[in-house]
Amino acid sequence: MQKDSKMQKIVFITGASSGFGKACAEKFACHGYDIIINGRREERLLELKDHLEKKYNTAILVAAFDVRVRQQVFDAAENIPEEWQCIDVLINNAGLALGRDYIDDGDVDDWETMIDTNVKGLLYTTKAFLPFIKKSSSPHIINLGSVAKEVYEKGNVYCATKAAVDTLSQSMRVDLLRHGIKVTAIHPGAAETEFSLVRFKGDEATAKKIYDGLVPLTAEDVADVIYYCTSLPPHVCINDLVLTCIRQANGIYFYRN
Ligand code: NDP
Ligand code: 8X3
Known about the structure:
CATH class: Alpha Beta
Number of helices: 8
Radius of gyration: 18 Å
CATH architecture: 3-Layer(aba) Sandwich
Distance between the termini: 47 Å
Low-confidence stretches: none
Helix content: 40-55%
Number of domains: 1
Number of strands: 7
Strand content: 5-15%
Oligomer: single chain
Order of helices and strands: EHEHEHEHEHEHHHE
Largest sheet: 7 strands, parallel
Bound molecules: NADPH dihydro-nicotinamide-adenine-dinucleotide phosphate, 2-hydroxyethylsulfonic acid
Mean pLDDT: 97
């Protein structure tokens, strides 16, 4: 669908080809937003665009790029069509864990991928798209952290990246105060998406085990909470929000049965 120049809110979601990002796209489309959807798997994004445009009569722009690649991120911002150049909500959601090993057994390539995606990708995207966010009358940045910001055994580098997201969210909140930009960090606990399958590199049995004895959060639960944060009165900002399923207390303690 072609976007017209009507006053319409725009949300930009990174990592919208799966999980939380995809559920957020559905949720925000349902509430009338036009949406820029990002991810590397362009076919999935095109399918999602088709689905959302038909179901909600909203405008969707596909921006397929790899958040790790600085040039791709800045080129994407450079090439954003004019009618999409006022972004009300940026959801920095693209991210992943790779492996779950003691730090001395960790894979250096996995460490680099996590740092490049979860930390540097978030920074590149925020920096590249900030000029468009500043144009909004109600600008809001949502960063996907995790309960993993507090370390658990074998979480090491993934935990460090989410601690960095926590710190960067605090920094953004302080540094962007003068621009009136709300900054919310969302810290979910275990949620069943493709996350564990990615973490355990396609090992379905190990990925499933993470959720044994739990009713984990769903992507839709997380999207509902994210949307709620954006729907508050203009003077109200949720700075940090931790959500878990009822059988999880924090990153470490679970009650499984
Ligand atoms: P999914 O694996 O289901 O989705 C991850 C999304 O990130 C995909 O759309 C993927 O798209 C995208 N992505 C990954 N790498 C890149 C990249 N280099 N460039 C662009 N997009 C990328 O996981 P979730 O939805 O569960 O996770 C979303 C976020 O929430 C992550 O930051 C994760 O760390 C965090 N989180 C997840 C929890 C969970 O238990 N599921 C709990 C707490 C936080 P594509 O592969 O097409 O590029
Ligand atoms: C994802 C949640 O507990 O698997 O951030 O690290 S956990």
